[in-house]
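quick q for whoever's on today - can somebody do inverse folding on this one?? i tried earlier but teh output was garbage lol. tokens:
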């Protein structure tokens, strides 16, 4: 989970470096891109947590049978 998040953050930083290599990004663009990647990161964390909880509950149900 943390590795995935770290990978997304590294990819986003690399993407920004590639896109804005020639020019300094305008503050608005930088803010929007950071916001976008924060939202994506939060979404990934939520999905991982939900999946983890679901799997845990399924294991408990199977153990009770």
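ok took a stab at it. sequence:
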């Amino acid at each position: 989970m943390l590795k995935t998040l770290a990978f997304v953050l590294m990819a986003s930083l690399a993407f920004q470096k590639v896109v804005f290599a020639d020019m300094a990004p305008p503050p608005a663009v930088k803010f929007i891109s950071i916001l976008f990647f924060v939202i994506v990161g939060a979404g990934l964390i939520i999905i991982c947590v939900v999946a983890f909880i679901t799997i845990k509950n399924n294991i408990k149900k199977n153990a009770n049978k």
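fwiw DSSP finds two helices and no strands in the chain. also Residues 29 and 35 are 10 Å apart (CA to CA). so keep that in mind when u check it
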